[in-house]
Amino acid sequence: MTPTSSFFGTAWLVYDIVAAIFIIVDIVLVVGFVYVFRKASRFHPDYRPKEKTGPAVHKETMHDIVMRERWHATAAKFALGTPEAARVAIIEADSLVDAALKNMQIEGEHLADRLSNLESDDIESMPRIWRAHRMRNDLVHTPGFMVTPQDAERTMRDYEAFLREIGVIE
Fold first, then answer.
1. 139 in a domain, yes or no?
2. 35-58: per-residue pLDDT in tens?
3. 97 and 157 inside one domain
4. Residue 144 forms part of a structural domain
5. Same domain, yes or no, for 71 and 38?
6. Residue ranges in the chain whose pLDDT is less than 70
7. For residues 96 and 73, what is the distance between their CA atoms, to the nearest angstrom?
8. What distances in angstroms separate CA 6 from CA 14, 18, 27, 70, one per listed residue?
9. Total structural domains within the chain
10. Which of 43, 63, 82 minimizes the C-alpha distance to 169?
11. Are residues 76 and 37 in the same domain?
12. How many other C-beta atoms can be found within 10 angstroms of the C-beta atom of residue 167?
């Protein structure tokens, strides 16, 4: 073996080791970037266009129409005036709020988690939606719980105010 071939053999060995190290570092960096991006994505701003003083810019989507129709159906059910209709309408309104927050990509396993992840300073009706959600929880989880007509009316107004504020209904 000549000194030249020994030198080139060692050089290639060093090159292979350095290349392997850089490949591993690249993989770690890509995995780290994906991890950080996924964690940071929950802090993304609301990408809805700001309202302008001129003509409306927002194009109505099928989801907007469906959500609005669900609200009108829920309000019509509540208007029947029976205790059972009020109970079902409150539960459906709560479900509608949950669906709206999921559509806005607010993270959380349950509605309460999603409400907690909202910026409460930006939403004036936040105390009202919490009160309405607690009423819904009492209806669902407390055996024999009966809601008074006045409380049911206030609860439905609370859901409506929140849905209007986040732009689900007009």
1. yes
2. 988 887 777 665 555 555 545 455
3. yes
4. yes
5. no
6. 1-5, 7, 44-59
7. 11
8. 12, 18, 32, 78
9. 2
10. 63
11. no
12. 15
Residues with Cβ < 8 Å from 48, sequence gap 6 or more?
A: 58, 167
> Is 57 inside a domain boundary?
no
Two structure tokens written together for 153: 């009316």
Threshold 0.70, pTM exceeds: no
120 and 91 in contact (C-beta within 8 Å)? no
Q: Which domain holds residue 17?
A: 3-43
The amino acid present at 63, given as its one-letter code, is H
CB 161 within 8 A of CB 99: no
Cα distance between residue 104 and residue 122, in whole Å: 15
Instruction: For residue 134, tell me if it sits in a domain.
Output: yes
Same domain, 92 and 156: yes
State the DSSP string of the chain.
--HHHHHHHHHHHHHHHHHHHHHHHHHHHHHHHHHHHHHHGGGPPP-SPPP-SSS--PPPPHHHHHHHHHHHHHHHHHTT--HHHHHHHHHHHHHHHHHHHHHTT---SSHHHHHHTS-TTT-TTHHHHHHHHHHHHHHHHSTT----HHHHHHHHHHHHHHHHHTTS--
- Position 105, amino acid: Q
Encoded tokens for 95: 């479900």
Residues 36 and 117 in one domain: no
